[in-house]
Structure formats: structure tokens, C-alpha cells
Design a protein that fits this description.
single chain; mainly beta; 244 residues; hydrolase; Jelly Rolls; 8-stranded antiparallel beta sheet; binds (2S)-(carbamoylamino)(hydroxy)ethanoic acid
């Protein structure tokens, strides 16, 4: 019998672990016949918003991006995005000021979204609408370790101020050192399990869990179990560390 008073979820000043047992849905204007869980948000101290959307067959996720850019990744199922058919592992990037409409989903289609206020960079155009397929993006060894493979989903040019990557760890694979960096992360586990060290606290994690890491939140991860651990994560990139 599950003890309803217990959860693995934690929300701390510089990190959070959000587990499915604590999900409560929000109503988002223009997002109808779907369940939306806002996993990470400015309200917890983050510089990004991350949501999990489960669509019903007649679900519609539509609107217009204003100051923020919006990235959608199809976790499972199919849907059409601005009339382009997307299935699991495929994604779309909407720059600020763009209309978006997601519909025609198979019931239960799951989408992950990352939202970030776009920081223009002098001399660089605002990025354009962009569709992609993670199955077509190579995952070279991370820092020479073949047990870790990193796929970079968005172009690495300076017009982009956010990155979305997929990190795959074979069982036993681990980050080569404890990272302490200015960039922030929001992530979601797509597969597997492991242990994440955040700010010197240790958390067993698994598929479906989301994690927020504030700037300088010390981080290290190792995968455990019988299958590779896979997470998709957001990172702010390519901008001056502080206003100049
Ligand atoms: N935590 C984690 O995966 N971090 C790094 O790989 C990164 O900063 O890209």
C-alpha cells in the first residue's frame, strides 16, 4: 500500500526533484483537452519553465510566443505541429513572436516543453522556427567516454541562447567529475534510473522524474540498473555571464 504522505520529490533553494507521484495539472489558456503539469518554473527560482503535456485525442496546444521561445519534444505518441507530423523523439523550436498549434494527437501523446525568455545578441538574427529528429542526431562519446553519449538537438550558433541535449549513460556510466557551472538545467528522465548528486545531496532517480539545477548547483550522476539511463535537458548558453 502506497503511503500517500511520502514522496521522493524535493524543492530546495538551488535544486528540485519533481517525481510523478506529486503531479498536479494546471489549466493553460489555449491548451485544451490536455493535462499540463508545470514541472519547473520561475516561481521556484528557475530561469526557465518546463512542462509535461499529456494530450487527449481532441487536444489542442495553441498560442503565440511573445518574449519567450518555446521548445516541444514528443516523448511518446504522434501529433501535428503547425501541420507537420511529429512522432516520438522528434521536436520543434518556436522563436519569440511565432504562432504555434499542436493537434491531431493520438490519445495519451506526451510532450515535454521548455520555455525561456529570449536574450537577443547584437549582430545575430533571432533564430527561425526549427523542426528536428533526435534519431538523426549523432551521440558521440562525452569527453572521450563511450559509456556516455551526448546528442545536441539545437544548432550551436550564437543566435541560440538555449541548448537542448539528450544524455545517454550506459549502466555504471557516470559524469567524469562534479560539475559546478553558471549554466542552469531543467531535465526529464526518458529512460532508466540512477543516482544524482545535487548540492552534495544524493537522490535515486528514474524514468519520469524531472530535475531543476540552479546556476552553480553542484551536480554529478551515475546510471544504474539493466538499461541505459537517458535524460533530455535544457541549458542556457551563448550569452555574457552578466550584463555588461
Ligand atoms: N548535468 C549535466 O548533464 N550537465 C552537463 O552535461 C552539461 O552541463 O551539459
Amino acid at each position: 500500500m502506497e503511503i500517500s504522505a511520502l514522496t521522493r520529490s524535493v524543492v530546495k533553494s538551488n535544486h528540485a526533484l519533481i517525481c510523478p507521484d506529486g503531479h498536479v495539472n494546471s489549466v493553460i489558456p489555449g491548451w485544451t483537452n490536455c493535462k499540463t503539469n508545470v514541472l519547473i518554473n520561475e516561481q521556484m527560482g528557475a530561469g526557465l519553465c518546463q512542462a509535461l503535456i499529456t494530450m487527449e485525442a481532441e487536444g489542442v496546444v495553441s498560442g503565440k510566443t511573445a518574449v519567450s521561445q518555446l521548445f516541444f519534444y514528443v516523448i511518446e505518441g504522434i501529433c501535428t505541429v503547425n501541420d507537420t507530423l511529429l512522432s516520438a523523439g522528434q521536436f520543434v523550436y518556436f522563436p519569440p513572436g511565432e504562432n504555434y498549434e499542436i493537434k491531431g494527437a493520438s490519445a495519451g501523446t506526451k510532450l515535454l516543453s521548455f520555455h525561456k525568455v529570449y536574450e537577443p545578441l547584437e549582430g545575430y538574427p533571432t533564430p527561425k522556427l526549427f523542426f528536428g529528429d533526435s534519431a538523426k542526431i549523432p551521440g558521440p562519446a562525452f569527453l572521450g567516454d563511450p559509456a556516455l553519449r551526448l546528442q545536441v538537438l539545437l544548432p550551436e550558433d550564437l543566435s541560440f541562447d538555449m541548448a537542448v541535449n539528450i544524455f545517454t549513460y550506459d549502466p555504471g556510466g557516470h559524469l567524469p567529475f562534479v560539475e559546478t557551472h553558471v549554466m542552469e538545467h531543467g531535465l526529464l528522465y526518458l529512460q532508466g534510473q540512477g543516482v544524482y548528486m545535487l548540492n552534495h545531496e544524493w537522490y535515486p532517480v528514474k524514468k519520469g522524474d524531472a530535475i531543476w539545477m540552479a546556476p552553480y548547483c553542484q551536480q554529478w550522476f551515475t546510471a544504474m540498473g539493466k538499461e541505459p539511463a537517458v535524460y533530455i535537458y535544457y541549458k542556457n548558453v551563448n550569452r555574457f555571464p552578466s550584463p555588461i
